Amino acid sequence: MLLADALADEHEELRLAARQGAAGYAATTIPERFGGAGLGVVEAAVLAEELGRVLSPLPLISTAMAVEALEGGDDVEWLPRIAQGEVRATLVVDPRRVLDPDADVLVVGTRAVRAEVTRLPTLDPTRPLGSVALEAEPAPPRAVDIGRVLLAAELLGVADRSLELAVDHAKTRVQFGRPIGSFQAIKHTLAETLARVESARSASRWAAWVADHSPGELTLAAAMALSVCGEVATRAAGDALQVFGGIGFTWEHPIGGYFKRARAGSTLLGTPGELRAVVAGRIGT
Hints:
Butyryl-CoA Dehydrogenase, subunit A, domain 3, mainly alpha, Butyryl-Coa Dehydrogenase, subunit A, domain 1, 2 domains
């Protein structure tokens, strides 16, 4: 079997898992010696992208960050329980904004602790957040970088699906006796969105590969990918809203959910300005 065919089969299995509820998602990046799947960031990014396409609330990103942090500390005994789905864990990057308020275990630095989490109001109802009364402790940089890589992949899925929904609508919505996709303004908007999405895809795939094969470049690649994918997802979902017109702004239409996921996700692990500062620092400008 050709490598390309093998990768295609593997990706299709991950996509199917995402659409069926991603049973066992928590075990994705946990090493096999702890009962996990032992997969890399590349595979986790494929899953994250598909979860983004369906606006899944599964806490894959926060779990993967917690797993990475625990592997570097003395509390590795939690990993088998996380792999089996007995407990949920999340890494505390900022006590004021905990990514998974329903987690059983909070990872502070590389230590697993238990603490009460207060849920916060959020822009994106599919991604709950919380706060916790703990002293801030620096999160392991690699864990944060992996979170950024997976978040970039998720936002790529949001952007890609937003474009698909807009294109499908443009083909079927008729105005003045013609599909609106035949109008120049709509065609140009969707063509520009496609170009941006493909650029984001390149950034996301490169960052995932770097995480597994070139760790020295990970901080740069992760910040760059999240900056690009966050902006592209927000723009793609916003453009799709314009294509749908008034119906896109109703609660019943799914495109509003994609716009909220894009806007909230693009600042979840760093604002665009903070991410650009990381990139500038790494390339020496």
